[in-house]
Specification:
It is built from 20 helices and 6 strands. It is elongated, with a radius of gyration of 31 Å. By secondary structure, it is mainly alpha-helical. The protein binds arginine.
Length: about 475
């Protein structure tokens, strides 16, 4: 049958009837499934997302079958043509996905048989849906990792570029969300570049481990046909075939590793998103987001809400939920394949989509935001943020033990606080009352700029360090 139009609706309704046994596996069945059986069993509603991977896998499988003389060259060529037509149908939106055919594998196979007849029926030789789905899913996760990797790179680039511009611009550094010591805005942004670099590493590790091909493991035990698993593995870009058929069809640790890496990355994005939310708030006013990344309130006309940042902050919920959910699905599953693993897809799809969106939104916000450098500079110098610099001076110049220097500085902070002034506003006499050795020299060490410039230890916030680190990243990422 070489009908180019999508299967018609009446045919589809007939397939869905409870009376007809399944065409693919219904040989021993007299009747079709109960409606509820079909509903719980069918995965086509979500696994249609795997159609590209499924066609890729089938093309590689068919080519190998022909190469090995298991099917004829003419069969293989018909399969190739048929799958190309199906691909075009799906792309054009004309393919009818049928729940009676359960999943993407049988939907495509059934359509292939409709289109090319006998040759289509040979495609499933030496293959099971168990190794087929394991292969498709690895391909999907691998593609997702590759897409996310490009996005992480994009976000890192946006951060590093801004970091270079703001390598010397002060902002308050916090611990416990209390003013601690001045840092530069560039230094703060580069902290997230480091986190994202490790996220990329985690995904890359997961990718390297998952890159083995399950195809040819068949249902669970392998196959008597003289297949060439190295050929299919190579054709699909895998490093090698998986070494144990039971493991290959049943484990989903590669999806769990993906979700684990995604959860950690989402956690990083959530931290950054939370900072953007704080920075946009009236008490902070560190940054403003433009109309492009904010929304208004339906009742309060003055509002500009950082919804995108809030949503990125929240996405960790569903991403980590996906990880925990799938881990629980896998727990206690005996070897080999069980239908439970059909529940692997939605969490991975959902997490991949959520992370894709989050990374895009974060890059957009990083490129969009306008820092309020005056405000950040002002707060960088407040809250006795250079108290540590004073203590360090006492240690370096007067050779006080650090604990004593800490104590003297604490008394000076108390004095300044009582008078509601900054440390540098105390007179030399007031300082000398606490520590006689203090000289006027101290004042030049109490500025934000001096504090920043002094932090030259490797990884510290001195503008020179930050500029060099930003440069290194920009070069490494280009
Ligand atoms: N839709 C199934 C899944 O996602 C494909 C494998 C079904 N295999 C089977 N023997 N029923 O897991």
């Amino acid at each position: 049958m070489n009908d180019k139009s999508p299967r018609d609706k009446s045919q589809r309704d007939k397939n869905q009837s409870e009376q007809t046994a399944n065409q693919a596996w219904g040989g021993r069945f007299a009747a079709g499934p109960a409606a509820i059986m079909q509903e719980i069993n069918a995965s086509i509603g979500f696994d249609r997302k795997l159609w590209r991977q499924d066609i890729r896998g089938s093309l590689a499988h068919a080519a190998m079958l022909a190469q090995q003389g298991i099917i004829g060259a003419d069969d293989e060529s018909a399969i190739r043509t048929g799958l190309a037509q199906i691909q075009a149908e799906i792309e054009a939106g004309g393919f009818v996905f049928d729940a009676a055919l359960e999943d993407i594998h049988m939907n495509i196979e059934a359509r292939l048989i409709e289109r090319i007849g006998e040759a289509g029926k040979r495609l499933h030789t030496a293959r099971s849906r168990n190794d087929q789905v394991a292969t498709d899913f690895r391909l999907y996760v691998r593609d997702a990792i590759d897409g996310l990797d490009g996005q992480m790179l994009g976000l890192m680039r946006a951060l590093a570029e801004r970091a270079e511009i703001h390598a010397a611009d002060p902002m308050p550094g916090f611990t416990h969300l209390q003013t601690a010591q001045p840092v530069t805005f560039g230094h703060h942004l580069l902290a997230y570049v480091e986190m994202l670099a490790r996220d990329r590493g985690r995904f890359a590790d997961a990718r390297a481990r998952l890159n083995q091909c399950p195809l040819g493991s068949a249902a669970l035990a392998g196959t008597p046909f003289p297949i060439d698993r190295n050929a299919t593995a190579a054709a699909l870009g895998f490093d090698r075939p998986t070494a144990n058929s039971l493991d290959a069809v049943s484990d989903r640790d590669f999806a769990l590793e993906f979700l684990s890496a995604a959860s950690i990355c989402a956690m990083h994005l959530s931290r950054f998103a939370e900072e953007i939310v704080l920075w946009c708030s009236a008490p902070y006013r560190f940054v403003t987001l433009s109309d492009r990344f904010t929304t208004g309130s339906s009742i309060m006309p003055q509002k500009r809400n950082p919804d995108a940042a809030e949503l990125v902050r929240a996405k960790i919920g569903r991403i980590l939920g996906s990880f925990v959910g799938l881990l629980m699905v896998m727990k206690g599953l005996p070897l080999a394949y069980a239908k439970d693993t059909q529940e692997d897809k939605e969490p991975v799809f959902d997490a991949a989509d959520a992370l894709t969106l989050s990374l895009a939104a974060m890059e957009g916000m990083v490129r969009d935001l306008t820092p309020n450098l005056v405000r950040m500079r002002e707060l960088a110098g407040s809250g006795f943020s250079t108290a540590t610099d004073l203590a360090d001076w006492l240690v370096r110049v007067l050779k006080l033990p650090f604990r004593s220097a800490h104590h003297v500085t604490g008394r000076l902070v108390a004095k300044a606080e009582a008078r509601s002034v900054g440390l540098a506003d105390l007179s030399l006499a007031e300082m000398q009352a606490e520590e006689a050795g203090i000289t006027a020299d101290i004042f030049s060490f109490l500025t934000v700029e001096a504090s920043l410039a002094s932090r030259t230890s490797f990884g510290g916030t001195a503008p020179g360090n930050v500029r060099a680190a930003a440069r290194n990243w920009i070069e490494a990422l280009s």
